[in-house]
Amino acid sequence: MDPIRNPYAPGAGQRPPELAGRDEQLGAFDVVIERVSAGRPERSLVLTGLRGVGKTVLLNALRSAAVRKKWGTGKLEARPDQGLRRPLSSALHQAVRELGHRDADSVDHVLGVIRSFAQRDAGVGARLKDQWHPGIDAPAVKGRADSGDIEIDLVELFTDVGGLAADQGRGVGVFIDEMQDLGADDVSALCAACHELSQSGLPLIVVGAGLPHLPAVLSASKSYSERLFRYQRIDRLSREAADRALSAPAEDEGAAYTAEALEVMYAATGGYPYFIQAYGKAVWDLAPESPITADDVAVAAPEAESELAVGFFGSRFERATPGERDYLRAMADVAVDLGDVDDVPTADVAASLGKKPQSLSPARDSLLKKGLIYSGERGRIAFTVPHFGRYLREQAI
């Protein structure tokens, strides 16, 4: 098969040639856009799931849908070592530009509020190099979104930006990836701002994406967050959707798979979108001709697994210290002992290592911060990456 015409795209956040299995989420978001634009109440949206299920791809697709409706949009990626003010200000600056409001004075006022919100992060009397310079010519608006209390400031900022969108009869979408990495104060402020927007009816919504424990993070911040957001769990693809993700791009290039090949591919990938793209690319490059057969998949599987071992699993495993790696391996062993479950009790992991649970708290907490594991409920932990336990067990052989 011609590698130049290989249609598959295994990359972080890279849109696959066929966005299969997400029609329900895309359709539901179209309804949200229309309702918000019409001034009807609608909740903000949170996407959750393991790494490799396509959360970022779907987040980008939802943003594209908003852009097609002439909404103002901005996107940011949360980081544990960064506050919310500056990245959010950049995202809202872009959203205001996309709205294209005709009243220059109104636009300058909102841009000035964005600037004051961001510059408050530098503190009073900050040096010039520490101040935020986003390309906004409008002067900062004193006394608006600059109190220093992130919750008060964010409510005021969203209110002004939402009002600008309402003037246009359109909306604003703020898209936040890796939302679980926001600081506790920023999460609380974001929930409060969304709560205020839901009561005022202003056309601004937040669309977040994060790991499975994100709802617990939000709930710990504000009890009403369970009613504030619409939660959608993004999971592996069904067999039908996985087959379409492979077959549709191949058909566009005049190629096909046998039924047996598709069956073997689903068994190998588990329906996870990233794995589908990785296997699809390897199989295409090594298959001699169309249709692609189960034998072709068997020949290409080692190359696909090698690529995943280095780029998907290995890169994450290398971030762990030796003690943390022992903890991860123990998690993998305990999961098998319990019947290949997804999450395991922390007490069982400690027992497997022959240590007291308290002595392992530093390793566990560090792995949580690095995003390698998550805790869906108290006393239990799981890998954030699908098939990570299998990878660790294979490495130990």
From TrEMBL:
GO molecular function, one term: metal ion binding
Keywords from the named record: Heme, Iron, Metal-binding
Cytochrome c domain: residues covered: 166-317
Region annotation (Disordered) ranges: 1-20
Xref: SUPFAM superfamilies: P-loop containing nucleoside triphosphate hydrolases
InterPro entries for this protein: AAA_16, Cyt_c-like_dom, P-loop_NTPase
Gene3D superfamilies, sorted: P-loop containing nucleotide triphosphate hydrolases (3.40.50.300)
UniProt cross-references to PROSITE patterns, sorted A to Z: CYTC
Protein name in the entry: ATPase
Species per Swiss-Prot/TrEMBL record: Nocardioides gansuensis
Lineage: Bacteria, Bacillati, Actinomycetota, Actinomycetes, Propionibacteriales
